[in-house]
Design brief:
By secondary structure, this protein is an alpha/beta fold. The chain has 29 helices and 17 strands. The protein has three domains: 4-264, 2-enoyl-CoA Hydratase, Chain A, domain 1 (Alpha-Beta Complex); 300-479, NAD(P)-binding Rossmann-like Domain (Rossmann fold, 3-Layer(aba) Sandwich); 502-596, Orthogonal Bundle (N-(1-d-carboxylethyl)-l-norvaline Dehydrogenase, domain 2), CATH 1.10.1040.50. An eight-stranded mixed sheet has the order 12-11-10-13-14-15-16-17, sandwiched between helices. A six-stranded mixed sheet has the order 1-2-3-4-6-9, with helices on both faces. A three-stranded mixed sheet has the order 5-7-8. The chain binds nicotinamide-adenine-dinucleotide.
Length: 701
């Protein structure tokens, strides 16, 4: 296979990048490209070049299959290849269709004129992998377009439409018809005009802005502080773009390379690349091959229009799938539909949705109080109260009414999906679809595989995830499934730490500084403390009497402090303000609780707080893996990154533990086990991997 396909059109040499599926800029392609340009320079019959992509797109960038390998000696690197295009004395025109991303766009920026097809998208998404555009992107883009725009594109990694790219000056011409024909025409025109090639390295569009405003880079860095918290890559991007204004082009390229090398070898980018691959791996289910036929979901029914049901319904309406919503009474139904309407109206008022789109979505929702209305739905999702008796009763009804072959799903967060499936005559069609709150916002979907769920049912709900823009992860049946079961460990230890000597604000700060959006106590106040209190009261009888239990949260709830909604919880709040304020009353309550529990309070370091909160969570992940309730460690990472705000730049809890070393995690858990008892027992798998010097990523079911 030729990595570059050469075609002649008169005096124009067309070079088609040919490395399926995305024209990754691998060694063979770079070598062929440089060779063809060189030969073309020496060939008098050739007046100009057009670079285009064979297949679906121009190029999505570096060839990821090449990561971590050493290309054959003498192979030009991407910078060499781009420089050879840019330095060509004959005009080089890009014909861009599909996508030009990362190295793909950097290659195009090295050509002298860029024609884009309609619907093309371009961008430099490297920062989302913890690196930066390392083949001249940070040097050429600010020379071609407005400085602040260049900074924004490079530090966000956002892909933009061809029209936006045209407006900015990244694309010179948007083709009305065939992009290759338009590019050939442009190449012929440029060759005939005989002007010197317009090299990006010689442009200066964005550079002046920095001279006029020396604080530009510092100011820009401040604007991204929230999104870039804890990361190095976005700041390295800013430094490189700034270098374009303080160094000559070649020195700027060198500086960019140095910064790139630092990033690509750091844990941050390893973690973000891990997250990227984990999100793709998650769709693979060993015994449900990709060839398994998934059912078409053209209509849905949701039972229960409370907090979750309403949000779930919105997911379907958002992608044009009609939804029937069932409630017990008209008043509850009206309230539920009103809440959905309010949610949409809020998005409209922020300018993120048009009124027309909102009306269309609302038009796809039909309410009913009679269960018969679910008869035609391809999927029925139950989202009623978390009571087994209620769920069983509803599933018997669903079984009697739903059409044959419909998927019967439950949104339960703790109950046994198999027990629910058992009341139907078609347990093979039953599955859990565990959405996270708010269900219209949170991207995670835990699909819960019942003992009898058929491969077709699983393939359908995994596919559904994609349809409704969720990240779907397949998990097995257990209390809390994967995410909440692990969360439970973390919450419990945070509470024990409070009893032992720290205050909520210290725990929350440690967890926030680690990179979570907030710590467990701020989170509790936001979610409402009454929910957990009710569960604890219900489950009190199941708790072994010799098991340690922290009563601090109960004492707080007894005072009617349920969190933000009551103006006080673990913290106090001022009217109309959600900022948690440490409360001396809570401090005395905690000190008293320690006394009551016979615990002498001690200084606890931030390091211990972090380990005590997160190691037991990882340990539970190990138990989940050995029990076969998650397919692979990276699936657990996907759950934590998308459902719980685990910082992507740490990769997820299991990847994070791998980077620390499982021997350290295991030894610490062993110590905790000795000090704190049974709840801290190290998982067998953790012990095994640690002793073998292995990682969670080595675990293969
Ligand atoms: N709230 C969360 O954060 C969350 C997250 C994940 C999963 N879940 C699970 O989702 C389910 C629903 O939780 P929620 O928070 O939306 O509860 P909710 O109390 O807000 O809503 C439940 C709704 O179901 C309706 N309902 C009850 N019986 C019904 C019946 N027979 N027919 C039709 N409607 C009926 C109720 O009127 C109510 O509106 C539970 O299983 C819960 O465990 C909740």
């Amino acid at each position: 296979m030729n990595a570059v396909i050469e075609e002649r059109r008169g005096s124009v040499l067309i070079l088609k990048l040919n490395n399926p599926p995305v024209n990754g800029l691998g060694a063979a392609l770079r070598t062929a490209l440089v060779g063809a340009i060189k030969a073309g320079q020496e060939n008098n019959e050739i007046a100009a070049f057009v670079i285009s992509g064979e297949g679906r797109m121009y190029s999505a960038g570096a060839d990821i299959r090449e990561f971590g390998t050493t290309p054959p000696a003498g192979t030009p690197d991407l910078n060499d290849a781009i420089n050879s295009l840019e330095m060509s004395s004959k005009p080089v025109v890009s014909a861009i269709h599909g996508v030009a991303a990362g190295g793909g766009l950097e290659l195009a920026l090295g050509t002298h004129y860029r024609v884009g097809a309609a619907k093309t998208r371009v961008g430099l998404p490297e920062v989302t992998l913890g690196i930066l555009p390392g083949a001249g992107g940070t040097q050429r883009l600010p020379r071609l377009i407005d400085m602040t725009k260049a900074l924004e594109l490079i530090t966000s990694g956002r892909l933009i439409s061809v029209d936006e790219a045209h407006k900015l000056g990244i694309i010179d011409e948007v083709a009305d018809g065939d992009v290759l024909e338009a590019a050939i025409e442009a190449a012929e025109r440029l060759a005939t005009e005989g002007a010197a090639p317009r090299r990006s390295r010689d442009q200066a569009v964005g550079l002046a802005a920095a001279k006029d405003n020396p604080a530009l880079f510092e100011d820009f860095a401040k604007t991204m502080a929230k999104a870039a918290r804890g990361m190095n890559a976005p700041y390295a991007c800013v430094r490189c773009v700034e270098a374009a204004t303080t160094m000559n082009f070649d020195d700027g390229l060198k500086y960019e390379r140095e910064e790139f090398t630092k990033l690509v070898t750091a844990t941050e980018s390893a973690a973000m690349r891990h997250a990227f691959f984990a999100e793709r791996e998650v769709a693979k289910i060993p015994d449900v091959p990709a060839t398994t036929s998934a059912k078409d979901i053209k209509s849905a029914a949701i039972i229960g229009c409370g907090t979750m049901g309403g949000g779930i319904a919105m997911n379907f309406a958002n992608v044009g799938i009609p939804v029937t919503i069932i409630e017990t009474e008209q008043a509850a139904l009206d309230r539920g539909l009103e809440r959905i309407k309010g949610n949409y109206a809020n998005t409209v008022s922020k300018g993120r949705l048009s009124q027309d789109a909102m009306d269309k979505r609302m038009g796809l929702l039909t309410g009913a109080t009679d269960m018969q209305a679910i008869g035609d739905a391809d999927i029925v999702i139950e989202a009623v109260f978390e009571e087994m008796i209620v769920k069983k009763e509803i599933f018997s009804k669903i079984d009697a009414i739903a059409k044959p072959g419909a998927i019967l799903a439950t949104n339960t967060s703790t109950l046994d999906v198999d027990e629910i499936a058992a009341v139907t005559k078609r347990p093979e069609d039953v599955v859990g679809t565990h959405f996270f709150s708010p269900a219209n916002v949170m991207r995670l979907l835990e699909n819960v595989r019942g003992a009898k769920s058929s491969p077709e049912t699983i393939a359908t709900v995994m596919n559904l995830g994609k349809t409704i823009n969720k990240v779907a992860v397949l998990v097995g049946v257990c209390d809390g499934f994967v995410g909440n079961r692990m969360l439970h460990q973390y919450g419990r230890e945070a509470n024990f730490l409070i009893e032992e000597g720290v205050l909520p604000q210290q725990v929350d700060k440690v967890i926030f500084d680690f990179g979570f959006p907030m710590g467990p106590f701020t989170m509790g106040d936001m979610a409402g403390l009454d929910i957990g209190w009710a569960v604890r009261k219900r489950k009190a009888a199941e708790r072994p009497s010799n098991q340690r239990y922290s009563a601090v949260a109960d004492r707080i709830c007894e005072q009617g402090r349920f969190g933000q909604k009551t103006g006080a919880g673990w913290y106090r709040y001022e009217a109309g303000n959600r900022t948690p304020i440490p409360d001396p009353e809570i401090e005395s309550l905690i000190i008293q609780a320690s006394k009551n529990a016979g615990i002498e309070r001690r200084e606890i370091s931030d390091e211990e707080v972090l380990k005590r909160c997160l190691y037991p969570l990882v340990n539970e992940g190990a138990k989940i893996l050995e029990e076969g309730l998650a397919i692979r460690a990276s699936d657990i990472d996907v759950i934590w990154v998308h459902g719980y705000g685990f910082p992507r730049y740490h990769g997820g809890p299991m990847f994070w533990a791998d980077t620390i070393g499982l021997d350290e995690v295991y030894e610490t858990m062993r110590r905790y086990h000795a000090e704190h008892g049974e709840l801290m027992r190290p998982a067998g798998l953790l012990e095994k991997l640690a002793k073998e010097g292995k990682k969670f990523s080595d675990f293969k079911g």
